[in-house]
Amino acid sequence: MLRISTALAAVCLFAPTCFAGGISLNATRIIYQEGQKEASLTVQNHSQKDVFLVQSWIDDINGNKKTPFIITPPLFQMQPNKNNALRIVNINNQLPADRESVYWINVKAIPAASEDSAGKNLLQIAVRTRLKLFYRPKDLPGDPASAAKTLTFTHTGNQLAIDNPSAYVMTFHELNVGGKLIKDPVMVPAKGHLSVKLPASTGAFSQVQYSIINDFGAAGAQLTQPVR
């Protein structure tokens, strides 16, 4: 019997739920507040007949799986029309206290082979959904919506430098530069810096238009800032 396994990555940013085959999640991002005992994420199997093996883990922006968080259960079977809760726990209180930290929650859904597939060629598609996990310390100044207005932009050659002086991670829903929409998702760390390569066809510009994704995974207000 020939089996082919294919992995598809799905990054869900804006929909109210993320779908991976017959599997959905009840959130597009998790905000883990300092002092919170745990956070939870609900996984649901919408299929009427398919069984899935669900694997979950947390890694950092570089793909390292050794993080201050654990997620349980890391591996379980989802029966049709059932749901299960993933528990996310912070096991390390040494994270920065003056800014947000960000990690990735990964949920992979692997369909189980049916009994009538024995002896047949089988294409198995494992679909992985990724969503951001934000650790938010207590008493950070301001709020994410106000922080979005503090971003500064500098244009040098074919690069747009974005500086984020705030304590909050900024993820763009939309970034429009010189009439060109920057298509790749752009995330600027708290108290951090990011350089974005501009498309070759970008016209002259003196300002940028953008919106930031809020805590609920939706686009915030449209903002305009001058470019230095």
From TrEMBL:
Q: Which keywords has UniProt assigned to this entry?
A: Chaperone, Fimbrium biogenesis, Periplasm, Signal
Q: What is this protein called?
A: Long polar fimbrial chaperone LpfB
* Pfam families on file: PapD_C, PapD_N
Asked whether the UniProt record includes Signal among its keywords, one would answer: yes
Q: Does this entry carry the keyword Hydrolase?
A: no
Do you know which Gene3D superfamilies this protein is assigned to?
A: Immunoglobulins
Location within or outside the cell: Periplasm
Q: Where is the Pili assembly chaperone C-terminal domain?
A: 162-218
Principal place of residence: periplasm
> Which family is annotated?
Belongs to the periplasmic pilus chaperone family.
Per the record, the GO terms for biological process are:
cell wall organization
Question: What sections of the sequence does the record tag as coiled-coil?
Answer: none
Q: Which residues form the signal peptide?
A: 1-20
The record's GO CC annotations read:
outer membrane-bounded periplasmic space
Could you tell me which residue ranges the Pili assembly chaperone N-terminal domain spans? 22-140
Xref: PANTHER family: CHAPERONE PROTEIN FIMC-RELATED, PILUS ASSEMBLY CHAPERONE
